[in-house]
Write a structure and sequence with these properties.
heterodimer, A: about 170 residues, elongated, B: about 300 residues, Methylamine Dehydrogenase, Chain H, 24 strands, cytoskeleton (chain A), ARPC2/4 (chain A), Actin-related protein 2/3 complex subunit 4 (chain A), actin-binding (chain A)
């Protein structure tokens, strides 16, 4: 199990190292503006082919790159209904605080759970390999977090039920 | 071989140009100013001038060798030519007639013209009009499908090569009546202004960093697909070579001699390419020892060697 996760993360890391070659590029459509081309999508020649890395049907990662920006969208493994609800709530909590993360996108791309938007300005202020480390670490931590949350929900549920039903003994 | 000397001028440098005697360097520290530093005797760089006129980031700077003028272009669609009067640098506005950002600039070999590549998919050739005492531009329009990322002059002062984000490299004639003299022997003898001499479509990704060799017989440019292209015998029957490498793409090149080219790019390690006696180009080595941790992610801009 851990073996495939290592391969999946290494693949994503290598793709990000190639895709994160960003540079400052002023907008071709609007004068004096500088917009992330991957979000604008008006000039197809400035976009690179999107890369989809799938671990299985439930887990995948879409990497959309352009000349000055990069979008990484993740679909996190959700085994049952409870994990579904937990993932949605947890990632919504993070996305609403996107300013604190700087590279996080406020809304995930359609069909995915969470998205990152890295621009050339992020690469100028921060180091590229550290950004990649952050994203890969994030992916590892998400799985751990969701499992912990699920465990604590089940534990709490069991405790509450035991306490409640004691009165009927 | 490690770097000869390392000096941190700013967190990010957008573009730079050496002074004619290589004692000073003009650079843009990723904002709307141009800082000029001078190397003092005890090997320290001191900031001597700050050129402040642009509203947005300065994307290109070039320092002419014989006439000691600096030209700067910026994302705010403007360009200034700076002349040194006693101790101050005085700007002169250039009417570029651009409606998008300017991306790159280079003085022509005779320094009577300069070329500006822009995001408006045009190239401006500017020359000085003595009667009106200002710089006037002529545009090369409708030739490029996307932003012009890099321009380079041929030693004959007439041919100009450009690269663009549409992946193509084009060579134009920029003959201007009254500024250039007809060279009866040159191949560009009967070409008009803006006429496209050649179009090279080798890269399927964005093209950057074009430079001519010192003789003007060859030019080299890089593509974002981690390849470097060399075109020899520029003229009616050019021959092209491409060298692919496994590392991250290059961003700019420099001809050290007729047979040696240095490329810099996203690997933060300059690569040396050489041509053997038969004219076949190949990768020779990296200039720096391979570092495990790379420094800032900005691509390195070219540095002229002494």
């Amino acid at each position: 199990m851990a073996n495939t996760s290592r391969l999946y993360l290494t693949c994503i890391r290598n793709t990000l190292e190639a895709a994160m070659c960003l540079q400052n590029f002023p907008c071709q459509e609007v004068e004096r503006h500088n917009k992330p081309e991957v979000e604008l999508k008006t000039s197809p020649e400035l976009l690179l082919n999107p890369v989809l890395i799938c671990r299985n049907e439930a887990e995948k990662c879409l990497i959309d790159s352009s000349i000055n920006s990069l979008r990484i969208s993740l679909k996190v493994k959700q085994a049952d209904e409870l994990e579904n609800i937990l993932t949605k709530k947890f990632l919504r909590f993070l996305s609403m605080r996107a300013e604190a993360f700087q590279v996080l996108r406020r809304k995930p791309v359609q069909g995915y759970d969470i998205s990152f938007l890295v621009t050339n300005y992020h690469c100028e202020e921060m180091q590229k390999h550290k950004l990649i480390d952050f994203i890969v670490q994030f992916m590892e931590d998400i799985d751990k977090e969701i499992s912990e949350l699920k465990l604590s929900v089940n534990t709490r549920g069991r405790l509450v039920a035991t306490e409640f039903l004691k009165q009927f003994i | 071989m490690a770097a000869v000397s390392v000096h941190q001028f700013a967190q990010c440098i957008t573009c730079h140009a050496w002074s004619p005697d290589h004692s000073m360097i003009a650079l843009c520290p990723n904002n709307n100013e141009v800082h000029i530093y001078r190397l003092s005797e005890d090997d320290k760089w001191e900031k001597i001038h700050v050129l402040q006129k642009h509203d947005q980031i300065v994307s290109g700077v070039d320092w002419s060798i014989s006439s000691n003028r600096i030209v700067t272009v910026s994302h705010d669609r403007n360009s200034y030519v700076w002349n040194q009067e006693t101790t101050e640098w005085v700007p002169t506005l250039v009417i570029l007639r651009l409606n998008r950002a300017a991306l790159c600039v280079q003085w022509s070999p005779k320094e009577n013209k300069f070329a500006v590549g822009s995001g408006a998919k045009t190239v401006c050739i500017c020359y000085y009009e003595q009667e009106n005492n200002w710089w006037v531009s002529k545009l090369i329009r409708k030739r490029h499908d996307s932003s012009v990322t890099s321009v380079a002059w041929h030693p004959n002062n007439i041919l100009l090569a450009t690269t663009s984000t549409d992946g193509k490299c084009r060579v134009f004639s920029t003959f201007i009546k009254g500024v250039d003299t007809r060279d009866s022997t040159g191949s560009s003898a009967d070409s008009k202004f803006g006429e496209q001499i050649m179009q090279i479509d080798l890269s399927f990704c964005w093209a950057f960093g074009i430079k001519w060799s010192p003789s003007g017989n060859t030019f080299a440019y890089v593509g974002h697909n981690s390849m470097i292209y060399f075109v020899d015998d520029v003229g009616p029957s050019p021959s092209a070579q491409s060298v692919a490498f496994r590392d991250l793409p290059l961003r700019d090149v420099l001809f050290i001699s007729e047979r040696m080219v240095i490329g810099v790019g996203f690997d933060c390690n300059p690569m040396v390419f050489t041509a053997d006696e038969r004219g076949l180009w190949s990768f020779l080595r990296f200039l720096d020892e391979r570092k495990i941790v790379s420094s800032s992610a900005r691509y390195g801009s070219q540095v002229a060697t002494e």
